[in-house]
Structures are given as C-alpha cells and as structure tokens.
Design goal:
3 strands; 2 domains; 6 helices; Arc Repressor Mutant, subunit A
C-alpha cells in the first residue's frame, strides 16, 4: 500500500531530520545556519537531509540572493495527526462525555453523591456488589 504520507514518515524516521525541523520550528534559517548546528556533518550531508525534508513537503525553501532560507511547513505533520490521532481523540472525548453525564446524573439523584452523600446509605459499607454501588459503565 503506497500512501501519500509515506515520504513524510520516511523523512521523520531520521533523528537528524527531526532535529532540523525542531530548529526550524521557531524561525526560518539559512542552510549555513543549519550546517553550523551540525558540526559533525558535512554541508553536503545537511543539504541531503534538507532535500529529503523538502521532498516530503516538510520544508519550504525561499531563495534570497545567494542565501537559501528554509521554512518549516507543518501541514504534513498535521495531516499525520489527523489521520492517526484523530480517531483516538474522538474515542477518548466520547468516553469522557459519558463519564461527565454519569457523574452529573449521580450528583442529582437524591441520596447519592452531592452534599448528602452517605446520608441514605443506612450504614452500608459500600462493598463491591452492593446495590447502588459500582462505577460508571464506560
């Protein structure tokens, strides 16, 4: 299965490329500035990493004279988030809404929850299996 986000995942798989994106998060930087952040790499190696990031759409390049300014493009990262995290966020938010409804309903029932909690328990110990006990069924 070939996916349009495959190049983004491949680009993000490398730690050096993730560090480059971290450096571009706050502001655009020239290729020279980025090379200075990686003294262990040659200029050619940094440019190769930038080429992979640009090919994946994660970096947008603007040339100004002889300088090349690299800008972070966060759209592909957002697409990954929406594809992979969106469904889980929906699952958790619906579970939390059910819990909220349960708690609010419990507080409004006379003799349960709220300020008069325990007043109508008749001294029950609240053991598991007691009627009226237990938690929400989520």
């Amino acid at each position: 299965m070939n996916d349009e986000l495959d190049p983004v995942f491949k680009a993000l798989a490398d730690g050096t490329r993730r560090k480059i994106l971290d450096l571009l998060k706050d502001r655009a930087q020239t290729t020279g500035q980025l090379c200075a952040e990686f003294p262990q790499l040659s200029r050619f190696a940094v440019m190769k990493h930038l080429g992979v990031l640009e090919g994946a759409g994660l970096v947008v390049v603007r040339r100004q004279g002889r300088e090349r300014f690299n800008h972070l493009n966060s759209v592909p990262i957002r697409q990954i988030y929406e594809r992979w995290m969106g469904p889980y966020a929906e699952l958790w938010s619906s579970s939390l809404l059910r819990l909220k409804d349960y708690v609010e309903r419990d507080i409004r029932v006379p003799g349960r929850g709220g300020d008069d909690a325990g007043a109508s328990d008749s001294g029950k110990g609240g053991k598991p299996g007691d009627k009226g006990g237990g938690g929400p069924q989520l």
